[in-house]
């Protein structure tokens, strides 16, 4: 994004306000900062400031606000295979009753990378990252299926991961 285009956008430190549903509404400059960090999470604030037309201090404040609001995280993303996790799977789960307690219990499991409440064939989808097949079996059989409201599961074991990206941008 060209700095002139971004600089012409609002540089007001009140860069985001909450919408009626409680989610932050981001201005163009905050979106541009997010895009800069998605390209390189270690990019210096001074470089981001130059790209978006703000001072280093203003960028630092905005990034902190975005982090505090839960809009984004800055993390190191690893390839599970390269750090000793040989088995990944998506598990579809059908639940009887309230989904929240089951989703909370799943989210507390260290092997569960994300939990999604869905509409369709499954009530919940969870991605599980395990050391090997025995570990995956233990997680599914002894921990997920042991949750009282879980009625059924279906596992989709990953054979090969062709694409994993967090670069969907801010559109």
Inertia-based shape: elongated
- Annotation, overall tally of beta strands: 6
Q: Ranges with pLDDT <50 over ≥5 residues? A: 1-14
Mean pLDDT: 87
* Helix proportion: 25-40%
Tell me about the biggest sheet?
4 strands, antiparallel
Structural class: alpha+beta
How many helical stretches?
Answer: 6
The whole-angstrom Rg is: 20 Å
Strand percentage lies at: 15-25%
Order of helices and strands: HEEHHHEHEEHE
Cα(first) to Cα(last) distance is: 12 Å
Biggest sheet strand line-up: 4-5-3-6
Compact overview of the structure:
It contains six helices and six strands; from the N terminus they run H-E-E-H-H-H-E-H-E-E-H-E. It has helices spanning 3-7, 28-39, 45-52, 56-68, 99-107, 133-144, and strands spanning 16-18, 24-26, 87-95, 112-117, 124-130, 150-157.
Using brief descriptors, characterize the structure shown.
171 residues; alpha+beta; four-stranded antiparallel sheet; two-stranded antiparallel sheet; 6 helices; 6 strands; disordered N terminus
